[in-house]
Design a protein that fits this description.
single chain, about 750 residues, alpha/beta, 20-stranded parallel β-sheet, four-stranded antiparallel β-sheet, about 15% helix
Length: about 750
């Protein structure tokens, strides 16, 4: 309880003051409305007395692991002899201590291992005993393997219960793999594999060394599945009646909704099926799920009331006839559609309304991503400082209307976009005082600026008067640039996505004339949304966001740019000019040779003429040209040039060879443009996610006898990975999981951690 609520500080200060003799109180000061030195000292003593009182009040709560302060968790864990993982966050440690006895009672079972994985890491998991997937010689106690007369007779039931045949392929434990079932065959070498293997004696690591008697596979789904409420699809040019689920017109893989919660463990535990996990929906998986549901329908076309079968459609993806669905009739039946989840497209087999965006069609879907950064349908209130909401607070805008006229953004106050529909453009803004433009919580509205003529770009101009402050919160802006003019004291961009665009494929760029950008389904170029600063900005703060390039021009200046937990990306050659890479190698900690090419500011991810840039836990895909730089726990994948190398520091950071940077500490040198990520294509689930081989891109030191270098995958200050996803603490979670597995796994088994996503 804070002093604003309990008033302990004022209470104890006043009580002590009243105990002093009146002669001393009278001589303290002759000012009626100010405190003298004696009263100031009493106030400080009262503040310390308030701290003691609050500590006494907390003693009762501190006796319970559910309500105790974080610093008490290790002490309670010590009473239970809990093998506490020190590097875990408070959530993981609290669950570990709270469930210590619960874990011990179920020690050695698959159910408890999956629950431990979920509690410690927050990831969905499926544990597979690899010795059960090994081919073996049958013995006399085994049931018969032959194909039964009916799939529901006693022999078939026994075979499935004993794991002697696969439920999809009917492959027997001692027979050849049956590849005739497409869905079953596609599950080979996965957590849902139905085939059997000879022994693999290699060390269990990654994709090798799985099938052996002591091996236990821990399949982990690290990506999160985010469900988008009704949004606006995009019609596919040249393909009548086809649409994309993604509102920017990208082809993205759709994800299954993660339907396992804490209630799915304990006595309710059942090994999960693929449709319950946050995984990409393949066409065979969707088709198999639809066929299963059809088989369960009764004569009236209804599912049994007690049915618990996972429904990918409409729980994970659906097409709607209204943006505010209230009943099942608002969901278009799946047999009226052709769904292609791997590309994120669908065809409306009936006659859909015309128009782009189409009137009368809305969609809901789930997409995969590594973290809660950028615009997204997650709870933005958690784990951050709440942005200001200055008065007047205007009524929410909904319906995907153009932000103009009566719906225009005001010059001050707070305007909220209350849904996740596409808003096709907005008027320019003149900020006077404080303005907050935000998305409603758990919504992801898209402001898709109008398409510009060839050779130009649409600009959304936001002007500020001296002393004004602007906050953009939770918005997804695409299709054009954002320009800041005038004079701002502060600009804050939090949990936003300024679409970094999409680069054309190598074959498209090699064409004549070359194509720079990828193309959306409706034929629009996926141009980056640049942030241009043409005015004076005192402090520009960007947190938990994904942005395109950030540049100054026309005399614009940013005194201090602070970026945290974000990805900043530039598409090479997206502006006139050619950007070549710096040399492949150079001595460590040295300036580039005179022949090294300089970056073109027009193509850089960060290009600021003056001011100080501070990067914390960021991934920068593109060149950097700034005056002064401080970087901590970042990945600077491309060439960086800093004017003032006497100030600032680069710590726990991966930096491109040949860069001109201030002093470095616990940092590593990589080749410019090194392949570090699963994908650099915005919209893909693995965007910005480190590859397992990322550390192989580290260039060696000139002195082979020097101390071992830091790593990228676990090189942050707290042992997490470098870059924008350091906040997820993935390496720490994995280490904690292996520590707990050593305690609760069956004796003699060895875990093999396998990342599915």
């Amino acid at each position: 309880m804070t002093s604003d609520l309990d008033h302990y500080e004022a209470y104890y200060a006043g009580k002590l003051w009243s105990l002093l003799p009146a002669v001393y109180r009278a001589e303290d000061t002759d000012q009626f409305d100010s405190s003298g030195p004696l009263r100031e000292m009493i106030n400080r003593i009262g503040a310390q007395a308030a701290i003691v009182r609050r500590s006494i009040d907390r003693l009762w709560e501190d006796q319970s692991i559910e309500t105790c302060d974080d610093w008490i968790i290790p002490y309670i864990g010590d009473l239970l002899a809990t093998n506490l993982v020190a590097n875990l966050d408070a959530r993981g440690q609290r669950l570990d201590v709270a469930k210590t006895i619960y874990y011990r009672r179920r020690k050695g079972t698959l159910a408890i291992l999956e629950e431990i994985a979920f509690d410690i890491t927050g990831w969905d998991a499926k544990i597979v005993e690899f010795f059960r997937r090994m081919g073996r010689t049958r013995h006399g106690l085994d049931p018969a393997i032959g194909v039964p007369q009916a799939t529901d007779d006693d022999i078939a039931t026994l075979q499935l219960a004993e794991g002697l045949v696969g439920p999809l392929t009917r492959t027997g434990i001692g027979g050849f793999a049956d590849l005739r079932n497409v869905h079953g065959a596609s599950k080979a070498r996965s957590a849902f594999d139905e085939f059997y293997y000879t022994a693999d004696f290699r060390r269990g690591r990654g994709q090798v060394g799985w099938h052996n008697i002591p091996r236990l596979g821990a399949f982990l789904w690290r990506l999160k599945s985010f469900g988008v409420s009704p949004t606006t699809p995009v019609a596919v040019t040249g393909c009548p009646d086809w649409f994309t689920f993604d509102p920017t017109g990208r082809d993205i893989p759709l994800f299954a909704r993660a339907s396992r919660t804490g209630e799915a463990y304990g006595s309710n535990w059942v090994s999960p099926v693929e449709a319950q996990l946050p995984t990409p929906i393949s066409q065979p998986l969707l088709d198999a799920n639809e066929n299963l549901l059809k088989a369960l329908l009764d004569a009236n076309g209804k599912l049994p009331p007690d049915d618990t079968t996972v429904r990918l459609y409409p729980d994970s993806l659906s097409v709607l006839s209204t943006p505010t669905p209230a009943v099942n009739d608002d969901i278009i039946p799946s047999d009226h559609l052709k769904l292609r989840p791997a590309r994120g497209r669908f065809e409306y087999a009936s006659s859909p309304p015309l128009g782009s965006p189409p009137a009368g069609i809305w969609v809901e879907f789930h997409y995969g991503f590594s973290s809660e950064i950028g615009a997204g349908p997650y709870d933005r209130r958690l784990g951050r400082k709440v942005p200001p909401t200055p008065d007047p607070i205007l009524p929410k805008v909904t319906g995907g209307v153009i932000l103009t006229g009566a719906n225009a953004v005001p010059s001050s106050g707070t305007l909220t976009l209350g849904d996740s529909l596409t808003y096709p453009g907005a008027d320019d803004i003149s900020v006077q005082g404080q303005l907050t433009l935000r998305a409603d919580n758990k919504q992801r509205p898209l402001i898709r600026l109008p398409e510009a003529p060839p050779g130009s770009s649409t600009e959304w101009i936001i002007s500020g008067e001296k002393g004004s402050c602007l906050v953009l919160d939770g918005l997804f802006i695409s299709g054009g640039d954002v320009v800041l003019r005038g004079d701002f004291d502060c600009v804050t961009i939090t949990c936003c996505t300024l679409d970094p665009g999409g680069a054309a494929s190598a074959t498209s760029y090699a064409s004549s004339p070359p194509t720079i950008f990828a193309v959306a389904a409706d034929g629009r170029d996926l141009v980056p949304t640049r942030l241009w600063i043409e005015g004076i900005v005192g402090t520009l703060t960007i947190e938990r966001s994904i942005t395109g390039p950030i540049h100054t021009r026309a005399g614009g200046k940013v005194e201090t740019l602070v970026i945290t937990d974000s990805i900043v990306q530039a598409i090479p050659n997206s502006t006139p000019g050619t950007l070549s890479s710096p040399p492949d190698s150079s001595p460590p900690d040295s300036s580039p040779p005179e022949s090294a090419p300089k970056p073109l500011p027009a193509d850089a991810a960060l290009a600021l003429d003056d001011g100080e840039v501070q990067l914390f836990r960021c991934t920068v895909l593109g060149d950097i040209v700034v005056h002064r730089l401080d970087a901590s726990e970042c990945i600077l994948r491309d060439y960086a040039e800093v004017d003032d190398t006497q100030h600032g520091c680069v710590r726990f950071t991966a930096w491109a060879d040949g860069s001109v940077l201030p002093r470095k500490y616990e940092s590593v040198r990589i080749k410019p443009g090194a392949p570090l990520f699963t994908s650099t294509d915005f919209g893909q689930p693995g965007y910005g996610q480190l590859l397992p081989t990322a550390d192989s891109a580290i260039l060696p030191l000139a002195d082979p006898t020097a101390a071992p270098q830091n790593t990228i995958s676990a090189g942050a200050e707290d042992g997490s990975e470098m870059g924008a996803f350091a906040r997820e603490k993935n390496p720490i979670k994995e280490r904690g999981l292996l520590i707990k597995f050593q305690e609760f796994m069956p004796a003699g088994l060895v875990p093999v951690v396998i990342y599915v996503t």
